[in-house]
Every structure is written in structure tokens, then in C-alpha cells.
Write a structure and sequence with these properties.
Elements lengths: L8 E3 L6 E6 L2 H16 L9 E8 L3 H19 L1 E11 L3 E10 L2 H4 L5 E14 L3 E11 L1
Antiparallel strand pairs: 1-2, 2-7, 3-5, 4-5, 6-7
């Protein structure tokens, strides 16, 4: 999918930060949610896309897949320091994602302070509505360390 402008609303709650977003397709919703997570960790505009990582995530349904997807991106950062700037889905079917993440390893000098996010809070709202065309939406809250 071509790169699109990242458009979401931050939830500025000190106990449980997060975001709300909409997208024209389910695939774009998952991609943008992953990028919004990076943007909550650091300013995504400071991240270059000179490294490539592949991740695979599976879940029983769309809602669990979103939680697994975001947790996998977060765990990948926590284990390797990798921040994603761009995401391309090699496979996406609503129950499985195989994705190529482009980005770089966290650098305090380039990226500044990193916000310590532990994982997804219990609350995740996910769905779609139909106006003149389908609109997919998600609300995600995170736990701080």
C-alpha cells in the first residue's frame, strides 16, 4: 500500500495514553495503528527507514489480531530497539499478518526521550460503519511501565 499521511487523535491520559483513528480500509487501519504506536513512543518524523524487519502475527479474529499486532510491534521494539517508520503487508486476511517494517534502531540523540509503554490496556474498541463507503475505526489505550 502506498504511504499515506498518518492521521489520528492522541488520547492524552497520564495513566493510559492511546489513540483513536479511522481508515478507509481494514488493512490501512492496521498499518496506521502500527505507525501511531511508533509515534507515541517517539516523534515518527525522526525515524529513518534504512532497516528492514519482518514480523508475523496470527489471531482468531480482527479485534484480537489488532491487539496481537500492536503488542508484537511493541515487543519487537523492546527486544531490538527497532522503531518502524513504514509498514508494508505481505499478507493480510483479518486473522494473519505478515509484514515488512522499515525503520531504524532507537538512538537517544536522534529520537530523544522514549515514552515507556508496557502494552495494550484491556480496552480496545474496534469496528466499522457505513456512510457512503465503509469506514473502519479503532480506539487503543496503552499501559505505561
Amino acid at each position: 500500500m502506498p504511504e499515506a499521511r498518518l492521521d489520528y487523535q492522541k488520547i492524552k491520559n497520564l495513566a493510559k495514553p492511546g489513540f483513536v483513528m479511522e481508515a478507509p480500509s481494514m488493512e490501512r487501519l492496521y498499518i496506521n495503528a502500527g505507525l501511531a504506536l511508533t509515534d507515541l513512543l517517539v516523534d515518527i518524523s525522526t525515524v529513518q527507514d534504512n532497516e528492514r524487519h519482518t514480523i508475523v502475527v496470527e489471531a482468531a479474529n480482527k479485534e484480537n489480531l489488532m491487539a496481537a499486532w500492536l503488542n508484537e510491534i511493541l515487543m519487537h521494539y523492546q527486544s531490538t530497539g527497532f522503531l518502524c517508520r513504514r509498514i508494508v503487508f505481505d499478507k493480510f486476511d483479518g486473522k494473519r499478518i505478515q509484514a515488512t517494517l522499515r525503520g531504524e534502531t532507537y538512538s537517544p540523540l536522534r529520537h530523544g526521550h522514549i515514552h515507556a509503554i508496557k502494552g495494550i490496556a484491556d480496552t480496545l474498541e474496534f469496528g466499522e460503519r457505513f456512510d457512503t463507503h465503509p469506514v473502519f475505526f479503532v480506539k487503543v489505550l496503552f499501559d505505561y511501565r
